[in-house]
Amino acid sequence: MAASGLPISSGSAGPIPPLARALSRNQSFQRNPSRRVLFSETPAPKHQSRNWDSGHGSNNFPEMPPKHQARNRDEDNLSEISTKPRARDWDSGDDVKRERRGCRLCCAWTSLVVGFLVLGLMLLGALSLSFVKGALPEFRVKSLNISRLEISKKDKNTFLTADVQLLINVTNKNDRYDLSYSVLSVEVSSEDINLGTKEVAEFKQNPKKVSVLNVSTEVKKSVVDDAATDDLKSNYKDRQVVIDVVFDGSVTVNMEGRKLSGLPLKVLCTSIQQVDIDNGLQPQCRVKMFHFL
What we know:
This protein is α+β, with helices and mostly antiparallel strands. Helix content is 30%, strand content 35%. Strands 3, 4, 5, 6, 8, 9 and 10 form a 7-stranded antiparallel sheet that branches. Strands 1-2-7 form a 3-stranded antiparallel sheet. The N terminus is likely disordered.
């Protein structure tokens, strides 16, 4: 052993370093918090290595993609996230489809109900019209007589004086219903020349009964067209006068205690030729309840 007190190994060239100082009992149980060793039975994952460069094939570095590839990959991930439909979007789309389907079903049922109602009203109206038309009376012109026809001129005006007598047969064709007529206004004309007006009093008809209306009209010194009076005078002499008779009023149908009151009634006896009546014919008139019938 040297004088310095340090041991010298016989086989080494230099001096032996001094031994570490033994820790005291208190210091041996203190742990350094900065140094902790964790032991695990699971082996650490191996890093896959990739040769980024042919010159560094021997170095086992972790795989690091180039910057432009990482940027493209991030952009692809963002595009996938932005284009991928969310569950909320799908739910809202399903709700809209369900609402549209419900609206379509509601509209379909509403249209169906309205169609049935309209069809029922049309059928009811058709039945009512057929019944009413079957209950309407029949008008026929039985006789026509123009007892007086005078034409005079004064101060460049032409005046007409005429008396007309008509017999009209009114028949109630029903065998169950009574008919009650209001006051009927009658207008007689020939070739747009007024031959007078008349009112027929109220009357009633039993089923299958015929009533005869005596209608007499007259005009006195009525101003008329000169050319029209010439044709009327010529036809009067030849008994070829053509007249029009119009009845206007209302009728009530009595149906075994029930009444249809105030039904409009209009009778059109048009183009009635005197020669036909002289030959024993009874031209039938057209009976209307409404303007479209």
